[in-house]
Specification:
Function: Catalyzes the hydrolysis of 5-hydroxyisourate (HIU) to 2-oxo-4-hydroxy-4-carboxy-5-ureidoimidazoline (OHCU).
Number of strands: 10
Structural class: mainly beta
Order of helices and strands: EEEEEEHHEEEE
Number of helices: 2
Keywords: Hydrolase, Purine metabolism
Low-confidence stretches: none
Enzyme class: hydrolase
CATH topology: Immunoglobulin-like
GO molecular function, one term: hydrolase activity
Protein name: 5-hydroxyisourate hydrolase
CATH class: Mainly Beta
Strand content: 35-45%
Largest sheet: 6 strands, mixed
CATH architecture: Sandwich
Number of domains: 1
Length: about 140
């Protein structure tokens, strides 16, 4: 019989808010990778896309022994889809640069963080065409 219970599992969730438009970022693909130890090799462990609320709640629980997690957000496709409205906003602000053809200054965002067994980690990404920030949420 396994002693593994839901309370013993380490889990991760995330959401993305596009701060340039004040709305959730829907449809952003992301991957979750894990490693054991600072020098361990990264292993892909899950993938998903943000829902209409910009949330991703379906990532798998982390394997036992995981010490570090990396979330890779594919932001280029999201910004490419929203490039026209972003460039219009940039034109209205004389000092704001327009986006390149790809639609993204940051074509991907990689967030790496340490984890402890049995805890839940909610890692929100606040995103705009020219910057981002993250924090540990609840």
């Amino acid at each position: 019989m396994s002693s593994d219970t839901a309370a013993d599992r380490t889990s991760v969730s995330t959401h993305i808010l596009d701060t340039s438009v004040g709305r959730p970022a829907e449809g952003v693909a992301l991957t979750l990778s894990v490693r054991s130890g600072f020098e361990g090799a990264w292993t892909a462990h899950g993938a998903s896309k943000t829902d209409a609320d910009g949330r991703c709640k379906d990532l798998p629980a982390l394997p036992e022994g995981t010490t570090h997690v990396r979330l890779d957000f594919e932001t280029e496709a999201y910004f490419s889809a929203h490039q026209q409205s972003s460039n219009k906003q940039a034109e209205e602000q004389q000092d704001a640069p327009a986006l390149r053809d790809s639609g993204a200054f940051f074509p991907e965002v990689a967030i790496t963080f340490a984890v402890k067994p049995g805890e839940h980690y909610h890692v929100p990404l606040l995103l705009n065409p020219f910057g981002y920030s993250v924090y540990r949420g609840s």
